[in-house]
């Protein structure tokens, strides 16, 4: 039997009407406008946000694309526009319940192929904990969160409380960058918020957990994965270690250097260059990297697993682990045939 391929970073925008989106009035109002010809538009209130294709909301179209590209299983998470973090917590909780139910219904059209990940009102730790418990009981296989809520990053006490709850519940956590910093300087030019901001946001999130000592307080059982290859973290880890060794202010709350914490989280493989992937595997270990494509967006890996397979330094065993074996353990996926 061929080893199955599992994509841990794939988005969905389920059918949600403008009327349903009004629960987030003043906080984005994300909804889907279909064009009827396989095209559609992600909407934010009255504003057009991004043109999209049917694979984003049509399960049959998605599975057909997976079959064409050799992907056996996708962990399906909401498009970050849908987080609703700017809303009143009670309204955000209602919104997340709607989104989570739609994701369950979507994934139920291809059981075993599509793994549903829920979202939560992360702006309120108590509501977020209750939401992830309810979602897991309903069939969600993990939770998808943004890397920050306003100015609160993963070292925030409320977010740490939520992560500890996920560890206790055995719920894997996928962290995705969004609402990128520096937008006032980068603007919309050349998609710089995606090219620069996403990498910076992700590295900032990882280092916030390390340097704050949050990883020392969180259970080792926490299953945590950062999208987009961990951003700039692997490339700049030496810089962080050097600062920890030489400045008291950097190591004040972290008893060990940043490089000592690479066994506390996973990253996906969305780096798009075999040379970058080689460094990522050297830093993280092959057992901590999982295939991620950012499907179905055009800035994702259009040929899933191509970067992994093109990395000549990886052994066959390491390739198999990254393409599927690690994700099967991360999400407790039962045996599937490729």
Give an account of the 3D structure.
Its EC number is 4.1.1.45. Residues 6-332 form the Amidohydrolase-related domain. InterPro entries: ACMSD (IPR032465), Amidohydro-rel (IPR006680), Metal_Hydrolase (IPR032466). Helix content is 41%, strand content 16%. α3 runs parallel beside α4 (125-138) and α4 (125-138) packs parallel to α5 (157-169). The chain has helices spanning 18-21, 59-69, 89-107, 125-138, 157-169, 183-186, 192-211, 214-217, 233-246, 248-251, 274-284, 306-310, 316-330; strands at residues 6-12, 30-34, 39-44, 47-53, 73-78, 114-118, 142-146, 173-176, 224-226, 266-268, 289-290. The protein has one domain: Metal-dependent hydrolases (TIM Barrel, Alpha-Beta Barrel). By secondary structure, the protein is of the alpha/beta class. The strands form two sheets. The chain has an eight-stranded parallel beta sheet with strand order 1-5-6-7-8-9-10-11. The mean pLDDT is 96. The chain is globular and about 60 Å long.
**Radius of gyration from the CA trace?**
19 Å
> What is the CATH topology assignment?
TIM Barrel
Ends distance:
7 Å
- State the helix count: 13
CATH class category: Alpha Beta
- Class from secondary-structure proportions: alpha/beta
Overall tally of domains: 1
Q: How many DSSP-defined strands? A: 11
Question: CATH superfamily, please?
Answer: Metal-dependent hydrolases
Major β-sheet profile: 8 strands, parallel
CATH architecture: Alpha-Beta Barrel
As laid out across the biggest beta sheet, the strand order is: 1-5-6-7-8-9-10-11
State the low-pLDDT regions, or none: none
Morphology call = globular
- β-sheet strand percentage: 15-25%
Oligomer: single chain
Topology pattern, helix = H, strand = E: EHEEEHEHEHEHEHHHEHHEHEHH
User: What is the mean predicted local confidence, pLDDT?
Assistant: 96
